[in-house]
UniProtKB/TrEMBL annotation:
InterPro entries: MEMO1_fam. This is MEMO1 family protein. Gene3D superfamilies: LigB-like. It holds the Pfam family Memo.
Length: 323
């Protein structure tokens, strides 16, 4: 099998291309014409963080990141997403030559895949896990839509470089970030970093609460816990996500890793984000400008406003950085 099928089409998002196009157009149309004082797409915004839940949940949020994404010079798009289907250390690359979407197929840049794989000592992703993984697939219809808006024909579309990220240490993320730095600096490359933010609830083994806003001292709730008498639970979730977003915006890879160690916040794409931040930090140092190449958060949402301890929610964030 040479082409990875769009396995989530028909469940996580619409399978019919006309219906799907209408849905994505609707989400994109709701994004303001200007973001951070710039018309869209933002010139030079070649890297984004965007969520990967079902479009009914995260689609409106992801539209913000994709509206910012500048593909005008892109010849390849790296997509880094966390593994939800199997555990491993480091990164794994796809073995497929094409990735399918309801709109059409993307060509995988096999040459770049092989170079990155060799340089980083990466593994091949088992095809069955690659097919089952949603963290990469959920970005492809949005990417296809934005490519249609940017290029004259599918023949001009950039190729994709799908990379599944497993468990990585702080040092691992710095090493992989250093490996990707040369690609990050090349204006012919764009990057999609796939991540949802806080997964709150007992089903995620993360049901923390703070009555006084101190995220350094979190207590744990369970399904039968009484409703907190203090601020609602969703305020704790907001504080946790804001702290993680502040760390992302800081430009410091260490600050991001340290924040998640402090709170345990269940940011599922923490390792892809960590790799991106490590690369961006190195790039800023080369430019001798710490204010350059920092992520800017443009949209934050939660799937629900949790009040009761037996409830749950997932948070979504859109961000971009100008390179």
């Amino acid at each position: 099998m040479d082409t990875r099928p769009a396995t989530k089409a028909g469940s996580w998002y619409e399978k019919d291309p006309e219906i799907l196009a209408g849905e994505l157009d609707e989400y994109l149309a709701k994004v303001p014409e200007d973001v951070d004082g710039s018309s869209l797409p933002i010139p030079g915004a070649r890297i984004i963080i965007a969520p990967h839940a079902g479009y009914a949940y995260s689609g409106p949020n992801a539209a913000w990141a994709y509206s910012c994404l500048d593909l005008s010079k892109a010849k390849r798009v790296f997509i880094l997403g966390p593994s939800h289907t199997y555990g491993f250390s480091g990164c794994a690359v796809t073995t497929f030559s094409h990735y399918s979407t309801p709109f059409g197929d993307f060509t995988v840049d096999r040459d770049t895949i092989e170079r990155v794989k060799e340089a980083g000592g990466m593994k091949n992703a088992p095809p069955r896990n690659d097919v089952a993984e949603h963290s990469l697939e959920m970005h492809l219809p949005y990417l296809y839509k934005r490519c249609e808006q940017t290029f004259k024909s599918p023949e001009e579309f950039p190729k994709v470089v799908p990379i599944i990220v497993g468990s990585t240490s702080r040092a691992d993320e710095k090493d992989i970030g250093r490996l990707l730095l040369s690609y990050l600096k090349d204006e012919e490359n764009a990057f999609i970093i796939s991540s949802d933010f806080c997964h709150w609830g007992s089903r995620f083994d993360y049901a923390v609460y703070t009555p006084d806003g101190n995220i350094g001292k979190l207590s744990s709730l369970h399904d039968r816990s009484p409703k907190p008498s203090g601020p609602p639970i969703y305020e704790t979730i907001r504080l946790l996500d804001e702290a993680a977003m502040d760390a992302v915006k800081s430009g410091s890879h260490d600050a991001f890793v340290d924040n998640l160690r402090l709170t345990g916040n269940t940011v599922c794409g923490r390792h892809p984000i960590g790799i991106a931040m490590a690369a961006l930090e190195l790039y800023a140092k080369e430019l001798n400008d710490e204010g350059m190449s920092r992520f800017k958060v443009v949209k934050y949402d939660r799937s629900s406003e949790v009040i009761w301890p037996d409830d749950s929610s997932v948070s979504y964030v859109s961000a971009y950085a100008v390179l």
